[in-house]
User: Which sequence fits this backbone?
């Protein structure tokens, strides 16, 4: 199993969620983050104080998936989050050793499988 | 009168909060400044020129230039109040009317062109209409009733709103993404302060603390209460839930509707006006959201529709026994309703034409809308170089240009 | 008077902010609307019925129906003010009193039953008590002093608060989790606006801009200042730190305590009342938090205790030389203190019984509390379908029911 | 007058919001309480002692002790208003003046020493200066014009601000990190309410609702409008963007500058004063940020510079034909400008010396600054044990000391 | 060493913290996140705009532990965070290669060991 | 490739960013978190309610780096974030299997390499 961590632009979030749901990825967690990369900094002024803002708002998605879901998840994000401008973000794939579903205590494969779906255990 | 003027002045920042709460955080300062900015530019244009155009001696169509730069506006009485105070009181109306329009075009307009727009609008649209109705112009000759500005303020602003929204187009995300209010408490705060200020708006329009002022005042209290209650009922019937944004909107609708009638109708009629006006505005808001018209904060439904309903109901419910100069339809004078309708239609037509002309001309000189990318980033950063709620992470101080290394080392 | 009425009206949204700042974010809109909603329903019930019950001619126990739907309430003078204005002014008191109760039962009550409750309460509890004290009822005959509503407003609301909190039970997380104020600045904002509005509440109760109004006004300024200072001292002595929530609370306590006395006591006595009243309320707040009584925002400690202390001290410190109709204990008239105590006890008993009866009856018809799960989610979403501070992530637009595919395609 | 007093009282919480919005979230409550606390301690010190020092009969240098604890302050007329009301009105000025200073020393001062400081300052600095100018002291004998407090309020507070900022030193992060406003909407809210309250400040200073009050009122409306517009122009020219913090600042600068002149200059001159005053304050703000002077919220640039410009321009533009007792330079009386300059210089010198003496003495008794580590954590938690916007995660209820196990088990 | 990442309901946080402290897990970091899973969406209405809220508030815990602490940590979370309703959340276990304590520069085992406690080095 | 996750004090963030940029680490993502460790708890009081605050504000940095960048990144953080007081935070190094740059779809090494820089592919 893997954890797919993606940093995307806030304004693409709706599109990314849609793409993920269509790829049958239904469990995910997001958070507000701020990122620094190649983006152009913007300047703000408050009275006499001028500041360069080095960070821009991003959304971080964290998606635990079983192995055969990794590719579709990445494909969905890549296609939906892209604008082509600097600052589109990154995807990281991190190995996961175990997953539990807290509600039932189920482990690994079944922990990330929505109840209605069945899939071959290949994590 | 003094205090009424202060109350109406407070309405403009109040409106800013009402509006700013309804937009996304990234453009909330811009929205707030669209109101507060009016205090500056329209507040300056009024004594310099606008007042003269509205209340100077002139033709039935427009005032003259005799009071330009406050010439001849002193402490002598004009009616029951000092001329200077009358001018200031009227100025607060001009300021808030111009600011009202901003609600239709939030989150997409460049700030400086916007300021030019409302300045010109206050001179070329508001001032003539004010002249017609209150400055001795042709609508007052005709006998149109408008106690505190139903047509002059709300219908003209509502019309300008729809024209501006159409001409400038919708926000790029409109009807594509959910655009949610970032701070409903600010909206409720704004509506509470608006109500408070509106006592000056309506109560002060009698220009004296007399019986008519009392009547206007009392109507200003109970009409919104009725609108509020009706709105809650409509919300509960439709969705099973009463909404806070709805409550705040209902207060404004009730206030708008009673404005033209406040000093002319019985208190019970005032309650009826508030209750009745809630209905078209309620459905107007629902209907607007299904259209492509991005009148973002529903200026048309609240001020346009509310103003029209109020102006017409004034023609129905006005009562000479409660101080109105003429009776309304219900009290045996059907012609008044006609006159009201004429006033409504003419003001709509004029305001629409005037707004379109100003926007078109301005658009020739400079783009009025921000670039699409700027809309995405938000207008606070792109138009004002500020954030409403900065947290300061990743902010690196830029040394002021003039601070040389020596000055720095001295520290 | 006009402006006093506007000021008191402003107190209700101010109260909403005072309360809303003290609750968790997820129920803050609901808390705000519990106050603002009162402007609607009680604001409508008052002219239709409440005023007549309170101030119509009737028995010593309750007014009659002669002023129902404002019949016979016009611009003629009632005492020194127009009848209509008197009615409106009294209406603002009814509205804010009903809203006060909400502080005891936040974060757990369904909105529509709540609105019914406060409407009925304003008619069945508030109106009779107002009649007794101000409407020519038996307490005024007895000679109870209540300048601006210590018993009528604060003791009755405080009593209703404790009864409602007991009958509805505590929030599920009460005394289990820390329930912290989500926005102390809103609470301070509310207290600042309450103070401002209270000048209308107390200052206006003289019903004229005369010497008594000046006295009431000045007392309304310095009693809270004294309460504030004493509260800071108590805080610093107990914890080494003065708290902002404490300051905001102290302002309200000082205002409550001076309310019944404002026009009857010397300014120095006013300062003393403010200072003394801070003490029981301070320890009342501490004590309440150790009990199982989830009077969530301490209505009892602030308004109940503050009101009782104020009402009794009025009986001690009232001075004919400062315009009081009778002297108090300190000035040689011990019986006045007895009369005050009777008024306090009777109002508590009546308000308790009335509140319990209304809640019990309503509870027969429909559940008043929300479900436990809804309490967990928060009342904003479950009662109003809104969030106070929406950010819009993961919000998907739902096409309005009536928008067919064609309308959509047209875009 | 009553309402003017209420308006000025509202200015102190308004100022609290203006300031609190400009600091970091972690010290925002502290900043707010620095203003609200003044309502307590200065609000109590004034009737007990300060009023007597300022307005009691005495020497040209200071009043006496004849009105201590309000002795002899009753409802009899003092000039055109009841003595008691005059005292209360003046009290609101003392409160807000002391609170103004706090802007220079936010985010680093212990709360209780701060309260002692402003209390002493109001007695030892403010009261004498008020006596000189308004209490029959030597500056009024000299003929210095100060309508509503340009020297007494703004110059004295601005001077105290710079002295306190120098003596207490800069915040540890000043000029090292970006210290950004945590809530610009609060700052705008504060400036809106300040403007509203300032109508009482200037309008009420005529001590009657007469022609002079009207003039003062109108000037209070248009001078800030002019300052606002000029500030926008300066911002746009310098950076291409108008800022919201700038707008809020401009309003205050315009209000400060018109204060000494409000009832003495023609409306057109009032507009000129507002417009002219924006310029030095604008560049003052820019210049200050390059220095090591951590006058954190620019009290000096806004109130000090604005006050000086206003006081001097009063000497230039005052007109007997508009009610001023003497003409200014432009109207043929150059000596008035000298007198104004003397008043400015003397008040600066006295306020500087007095502030330094008080701070020095207090510093002998107890440290005034917080520890560096506390500055890092923020003053809300370290000084008040509170957070402005608590979310409640990880907050564990502490059982009150007195709650034994049995009481707990009973639950 | 492992990183235990848990997504839990905000209202269970107090209980989870208590359980972790009792299991002698004293170092952890939390953040506010929003999650999508099988939860029922709720609807909000702002004037004419009706929206379906696809995300619900969650708390994310991130706990770096040495190997023999993994089981107790998971057990503590599973038991304290469960309500049995859909939406209780997930636990992910991710491998960690190194841990540093910034204050001292200590590495790995000792970096996650509170000063007072001693334990066998078995990561 | 690795993900370096660091928890630091908010007041050290500016210094940490500076140190990272000087170490040529230019891509990173931060978020606001709250942590519990050995820090002294503080007490808050709201009217009659007294609470112990078990969590303190921290900043979490998440930095995806290629292998030879791990050491400089850690060194930069360790030196810049340290105050020596309890509560300075932790650094975790987590293995990463893949990295994508969303804008271009580039993978792994080149996904975390700023355009201007060249480095040997050794992840
Ligand atoms: N090495 C990294 N580690 C973690 N986050 C990164 C890294 N590089 C970039 N990011 C995140 O991705 C966002 C966009 O990265 P950037 O390099 O500017 O754009 P692009 O990928 O289009 O070249 C940044 O704001 C940051 O949040
Ligand atoms: N695959 C996943 N990756 C990351 N987070 C997830 C994943 N699945 C669920 N979550 C998180 O767990 C929460 C609850 O999950 P859900 O599937 O609704 O409940 P349950 O585990 O009770 O079936 C979600 O809101 C989301 O934050
Ligand atoms: N085991 C852990 N897992 C995740 N975060 C931790 C862990 N231990 C500490 N932290 C984070 O590091 C911060 C400081 O840790 P602490 O142990 O108090 O300081 P120190 O490292 O100086 O001993 C905590 O507030 C928390 O955010």
Assistant:
């Amino acid at each position: 199993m893997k954890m797919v961590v993606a940093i995307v632009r806030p304004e693409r979030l709706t599109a990314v969620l849609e793409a993920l749901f269509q790829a049958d990825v239904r469990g995910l967690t997001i958070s507000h983050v701020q990122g620094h990369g190649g983006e152009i900094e913007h300047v703000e002024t408050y009275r006499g104080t001028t500041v360069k803002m080095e960070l821009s708002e991003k959304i971080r998605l964290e998606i635990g998936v079983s192995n055969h879901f990794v590719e579709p998840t990445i494909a969905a994000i890549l296609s939906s989050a892209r604008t082509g401008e600097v600052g589109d973000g990154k995807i990281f794939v991190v190995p996961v050793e175990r997953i539990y579903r807290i509600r039932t205590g189920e482990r690994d494969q079944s922990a990330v499988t929505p109840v209605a779906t069945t899939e071959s255990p290949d994590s | 009168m003094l205090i009424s003027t202060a109350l109406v002045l407070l309405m403009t920042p109040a409106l800013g909060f009402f509006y700013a709460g309804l937009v996304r955080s990234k453009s909330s300062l811009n929205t707030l400044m669209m109101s507060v900015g009016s205090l500056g530019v329209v507040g300056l244009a009024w004594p310099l020129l606008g007042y003269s155009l509205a209340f100077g001696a002139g033709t039935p169509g427009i005032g003259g230039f005799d009071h330009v730069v406050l010439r001849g506006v002193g402490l002598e009485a004009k009616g029951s109040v000092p001329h200077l105070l009358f001018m200031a009181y009227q100025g607060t109306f001009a300021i808030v009317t111009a600011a009202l329009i901003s609600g239709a075009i939030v989150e997409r307009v460049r700030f400086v062109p916007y300021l030019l727009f409302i300045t010109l609008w206050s001179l070329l649209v508001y001032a003539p209409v004010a002249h017609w109705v209150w400055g001795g112009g042709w609508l007052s000759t005709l006998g149109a009733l408008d106690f505190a500005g139903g047509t002059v303020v709300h219908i003209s602003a509502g019309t300008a709103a729809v024209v501006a929204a159409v001409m400038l187009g919708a926000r790029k995300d409109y009807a594509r993404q959910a655009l949610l209010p970032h701070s409903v408490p600010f909206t409720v705060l704004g509506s509470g302060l608006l109500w408070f200020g509106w006592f000056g708006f309506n109560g002060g329009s009698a220009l004296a603390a007399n019986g008519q002022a009392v009547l206007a005042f009392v109507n200003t209290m109970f009409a919104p209460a009725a609108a509020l209650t009706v709105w809650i009922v409509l919300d509960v019937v439709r969705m099973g839930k009463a909404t806070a944004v709805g409550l705040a909107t209902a207060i404004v609708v009730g206030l708008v509707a009673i404005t033209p009638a406040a000093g002319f109708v019985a208190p019970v009629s005032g309650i009826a006006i508030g209750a009745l006006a809630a209905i078209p505005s309620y459905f107007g808001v629902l209907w607007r959201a299904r259209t492509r018209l991005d009148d973002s904060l529903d200026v048309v439904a609240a001020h346009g529709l509310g103003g029209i309903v109020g102006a017409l109901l004034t023609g129905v419910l006005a009562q000479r026994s409660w101080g109105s100069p003429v009776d309304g339809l219900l009290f045996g004078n059907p012609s008044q309703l006609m006159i009201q309708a004429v006033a409504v239609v003419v003001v709509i037509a004029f305001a629409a034409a005037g707004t379109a002309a100003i926007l078109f001309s301005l658009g020739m000189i400079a783009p009025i809308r921000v670039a699409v990318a700027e809309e995405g980033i938000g207008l606070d950063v792109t138009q004002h170089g500020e954030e409403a709620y900065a947290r300061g992470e990743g902010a690196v101080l830029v040394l002021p240009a003039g601070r040389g290394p020596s000055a720095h080392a001295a520290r």
